[in-house]
Amino acid sequence: MENNVIDRLLDENDTDPVVLYNEAGEALAFEQIALIPWNGSIYTILKPVEPVDGMADDEALVFVIMEENGEEVLAIVEDEAAIDAVFDEYYALLSEQPGE
């Protein structure tokens, strides 16, 4: 994964879709919902722009920014407890925003 994807995720002013590639090399565009610091790591919640087989329209994926071979990369989070914790943190942050 190119570092510019990570840079774009960390740039709160960048609202363009983020393009990631699946195992088959197919490009998938995602909207970033949130960037969540939790448990010493940074997570991002990404929602597919176009429908994806096996996912409901209101579902999103959780990725963690991690270091691999000296470079920052995105890794999909598969641990249900971690996913739930990241979403709990996201909802807590939403409830702290003025006007919510």
Structure description:
The termini are far apart. This protein has helices at 3-10, 80-96, and strands spanning 18-21, 27-38, 41-48, 61-68, 71-76. It has 100 residues and is of the alpha+beta class. The longest helix is centred in the last third of the chain and has 17 residues, at 80-96. 13% of the residues are buried. The chain has two helices and five strands; from the N terminus they run αβββββα.
Q: Provide the low-confidence segments as ranges.
A: none
Major sheet attributes: 5 strands, antiparallel
Estimated radius of gyration? 14 Å
The percent range for strand residues is 35-45%
Number of helices: 2
Compute the number of strand runs: 5
Broad shape: globular
- What is the arithmetic mean of pLDDT? 89
Spatial sequence of strands, sheet with the most strands: 1-2-3-4-5
What would you call the structural class?
Answer: alpha+beta
Distance between the termini: 35 Å
Percent of residues in helices comes to 25-40%
Order of helices and strands: HEEEEEH
Oligomer: single chain
Index terms:
single chain; 100 residues; alpha+beta; 5-stranded antiparallel sheet; 38% strand; globular
Produce the secondary structure layout:
Elements: H1 3-10, E1 18-21, E2 27-38, E3 41-48, E4 61-68, E5 71-76, H2 80-96
Antiparallel strand pairs: 1-2, 2-3, 3-4, 4-5
Summarize the structure.
With 100 residues, the chain is an alpha+beta fold.
